[in-house]
Amino acid sequence: MNVKTNEKQVTLVIGAGDATGGAIAKRFAAEGLVACAVRRTADKLEPLIAEIRNLGGEAHGFACDARKEEDVIKLIEDIERDIAPIEVMVFNIGANVPCSILEETARKYFKIWEMACFSAFLVGREVAKRMVTRGHGTIIFTGATAGMRGSANFAAFAGAKHALRALAQSMARELGPRNIHVAHVVVDGAIDTEFIRTNFPDRYALKSKDGILNPDHIASNYWHLHTQARDAWTHELDLRPWMERW
């Protein structure tokens, strides 16, 4: 289990969207950590930050393009200097954009890789540097079924998510012996979001049967990963509704 302290600690959520990322930030803030939520535009974070503060937690929003090395370095330095040490980093950028390989462009393929993998490397590297000096910490990467198998029309996304999974494995093998818990979470299934409700109403109708993933329940599993005893760490965790085919 990671070191517990009375000093403030930060949970950094890269990709703190309205569903999974926001739920993770809220859950960790409820457990007493400072939530530092990151999106490319800060104004979209205002409702999340306000909700956490209204519930008695501490939260801060940051605008950052995680694909840019200089921006990531500054983000980590600012949080470590001005708020508290980063104890947990959750990488939750999606980039799930389907396209036929016959129509895919080099520009979009590269952009999806930047979003879903390269940015994870940048944030993971910078956070790991600080955690290693302190001798503890948790790094969690949100993966997808695409990281396990490449489906038709998802060549770019599958390539990026396969690379993310490999990054997580490599970091876990290097950093685990240094008491840094690195985990990769395969989220397999539709998530309860406005996008699914609007664009896939038949799928969203399965919510009444627990047929789509609840963001709060995903967040509970992330908290469990962080609090695991280190003699029984989980590296890869699969999360899917009970009726999901796989």
How would you summarize the topology of this molecule?
Elements lengths: L9 E5 L5 H11 L3 E6 L6 H9 L4 E5 L5 H14 L3 E6 L14 H29 L2 E8 L10 H21 L4 E8 L6 H6 L1 H4 L10 H13 L8 E4 L7
Parallel strand pairs: 1-2, 1-4, 2-3, 4-5, 5-6, 6-7
Helix pairs in contact: 1-8, 3-4, 4-5
The residue fraction in helices comes out at 40-55%
Q: How many angstroms separate the termini?
A: 32 Å
* Structural class based on helices, strands and sheet pairing: alpha/beta
Number of domains: 1
Secondary-structure element order, as H and E? EHEHEHEHEHEHHHE
Which regions contain 5 or more consecutive residues with pLDDT less than 50? none
Shape summary? globular
What would the average pLDDT be, to the nearest integer?
95
CATH architecture label name: 3-Layer(aba) Sandwich
What is the assigned CATH homologous superfamily? NAD(P)-binding Rossmann-like Domain
The largest sheet has its strands arranged as 3-2-1-4-5-6-7
Protein architecture, described:
The structure is a single chain. With 246 residues, the chain is α/β, with parallel strands linked by helices. The protein has a single domain, classed as 3-Layer(aba) Sandwich (Rossmann fold), CATH 3.40.50. It is 43% helix and 17% strand. The chain has a seven-stranded parallel sheet, sandwiched between helices. Helix 1 (20-30) crosses helix 8 (215-227) and helix 3 (69-82) runs parallel beside helix 4.
Would you summarize the structure shown here?
This protein has 246 residues and is an alpha/beta fold.
Characteristics of this structure?
246 residues, alpha/beta, seven-stranded parallel β-sheet, 7 strands, 43% helix, globular
